[in-house]
Structures are given as structure tokens and as C-alpha cells.
């Protein structure tokens, strides 16, 4: 099972962002956790973070050649990027949307996810553990075409 974990804008600054919302874990620490969880589940994971929308989209396109499941946290792009929504729609494998914070109880504009209709599962407001839940979901599902 080959999984892409794709994190978007500002997630590289994790430990510097509001800890009440995002916790104290840095992005490199988060990646280390994800690789550990993946190992336990027997998954092979590639973590990528970018602050560039085009790179996020190019990564999705390139991953279609090798990936069995996808975990995405597009950051603020979640709320308005139809280009990212359309890129995610192209995946023939399962896609899980993850948010560290509970976007459903924050500002009105954050409650909107333009990607929610093209993902198979959503994990919201569970902090870093949300990525583990997403990995477990994908590992259980296996390489299933939507
Ligand atoms: C986020 C929530 C977004 O609203 C925000 O812009 C982020 C992180 C989260 O993981 O909680 O950058 O996706």
C-alpha cells in the first residue's frame, strides 16, 4: 500500500501557529509520527508539504502513477481552491481529507470545504492523530477504486 500524504499552505510552520488550534508539534515531528504509524500498518508513505498551489496540483497528477491512497490537508486552500478540488477528483484511489483543527466550529469561511465532495473520508479536529486515523482507514480499505 503506497500512500501520499500531501500537506498544503502554512503547515510547515506548525509549531509556530496558534498552539490552541494546532498543538505544539512541528511539521518535521508530524512527518516522523506519520512514518512511524505507516510502518506499524505496513504502509509505504511519502510525505510532501508545499506552499505553492501549482506544486500541490502537480504532485497530485504525478502521484496518480504510483499511489494506492491519498491523505490531504490543503490548509486554507480547502476553503476555496476549485483547482485543487478538480485535481483531487482525478484520483482513482481513495482520498482522505484531514484537518488538525475543528474547521466546523471555527470562522464561517473555514466551515466550507470545496473538496469534501471528492474525498472518501474526512478526519477533522483530532490533531496529529487524525493522520493516523486516515492511514488506518486507507490500510483497511486497500487499493480500492472509487
Ligand atoms: C487546517 C485548517 C485550515 O483552515 C487552515 O487554513 C490550515 C490548517 C487544519 O489542519 O486545521 O492551514 O487545514
Write structural notes for this entry.
- This protein is of the alpha/beta class and 146 residues long.
- The chain has one domain: Rossmann fold (3-Layer(aba) Sandwich), CATH 3.40.50.
- 35% of the residues lie in helices and 18% in strands.
- The chain contains 5 helices and 5 strands.
- The chain has a 5-stranded parallel beta sheet, sandwiched between helices.
- Helix 2 (27-41) packs parallel to helix 5 and helix 3 runs parallel beside helix 4.
- The protein is globular, with a radius of gyration of 14 Å.
- Bound molecules: 1,3,4-trihydroxy-5-OXO-cyclohexanecarboxylic acid (DQA).
Helical percentage: 25-40%
Low-confidence stretches: none
Largest sheet: 5 strands, parallel
Q: Strand-residue fraction?
A: 15-25%
CATH superfamily heading: Dehydroquinase, class II
| SS field, number of helical segments | 5
Assembly type of the chains comes to single chain
Q: What structural category do the secondary elements indicate?
A: alpha/beta
**H/E topology pattern:** EHHEHEHEEH
Mean pLDDT: 96
- Distance N terminus to C terminus? 16 Å
Q: What name is given to the CATH topology?
A: Rossmann fold
Ligands and ions found? 1,3,4-trihydroxy-5-OXO-cyclohexanecarboxylic acid
